């Protein structure tokens, strides 16, 4: 038996939302009414990458309450979206509130440009003990299709 769960809070799903062209709300409404129209939503030809920013101590006991800086700078990187997961607002500032703190997604015409944009967004963000994998998309970049 194989069980496969996907939630819209998963990094793998979050990056897919950036790759949809059309109105996702209309597609969901149509599916709920048994009127799914394939013309409402399509997969773009762009590539996407998602990088998780985790708190110090993740996955065990993540630190909480560290101020997150650079969110606006990261959001200004072309093609980048910054999605909040383990954050909260405290005294007018955004602070860490869980293990997977943020997900930085980016799109581009090829995998290399999407990855570069995602890591440009990551470099703009700072918080104490921030953990980031630096190998995201590296296996895909070894493929000749990644640069097309």
What does this structure look like?
A hairpin with a 2-residue loop joins β5 (87-90) and β6. The protein has helices spanning 11-17, 24-32, 71-75, 111-124, 138-141; strands at 20-22, 41-43, 47-54, 80-84, 87-90, 93-96, 100-108, 131-132. The strands form three sheets. Strands 4-7-3-8 form a four-stranded antiparallel sheet. Strands 1-2 form a two-stranded antiparallel sheet. Strands 5-6 form a two-stranded antiparallel ribbon. With 148 residues, it is α+β, with helices and mostly antiparallel strands. Helices cover 26% and strands 26% of the residues.
Task: Write the SSE topology.
Elements: H1 11-17, E1 20-22, H2 24-32, E2 41-43, E3 47-54, H3 71-75, E4 80-84, E5 87-90, E6 93-96, E7 100-108, H4 111-124, E8 131-132, H5 138-141
Antiparallel strand pairs: 1-2, 3-7, 3-8, 4-7, 5-6
Q: Specify the helix fraction band.
A: 25-40%
Task: Summarize the main sheet.
Answer: 4 strands, antiparallel
Q: How many DSSP E strands?
A: 8
CATH class of one domain: Alpha Beta
Classified in CATH, the superfamily of one domain is: Phosphoribosylglycinamide synthetase, C-terminal domain
- Architecture of one domain, CATH level 2? Alpha-Beta Complex
Distance between the termini: 37 Å
Q: What's the CATH topology name of one domain?
A: Glycinamide Ribonucleotide Synthetase, Chain A, domain 4
Strand content: 25-35%
Shape: globular
Write down the Rg: 17 Å
What strand order characterises the main sheet? 4-7-3-8
Order of helices and strands: HEHEEHEEEEHEH
Mean pLDDT: 90
Distinct helical segment count: 5
Q: Pick out the low-confidence regions.
A: none
Going by helix content, strand content and strand pairing, the class is: alpha+beta
């Amino acid at each position: 038996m194989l069980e496969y769960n996907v939630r819209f809070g998963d990094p793998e799903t979050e990056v897919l939302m950036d790759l949809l062209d059309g109105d996702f709300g209309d597609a969901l409404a149509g599916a709920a009414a048994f009127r799914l129209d394939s013309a409402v939503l399509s997969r773009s030809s762009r590539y996407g990458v998602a990088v998780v920013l985790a708190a110090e101590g993740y996955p065990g006991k993540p630190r909480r309450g560290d101020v997150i800086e650079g969110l606006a700078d990261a959001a200004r990187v072309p093609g980048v979206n910054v999605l909040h997961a383990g954050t909260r607002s405290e005294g007018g500032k955004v602070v860490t509130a869980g293990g997977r703190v943020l997900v930085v997604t980016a799109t581009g015409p090829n995998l290399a440009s999407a990855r570069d944009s995602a890591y440009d967004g990551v470099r703009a963000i700072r918080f104490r003990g921030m953990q980031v994998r630096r190998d995201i998309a590296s296996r895909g970049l070894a493929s000749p299709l990644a640069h097309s």
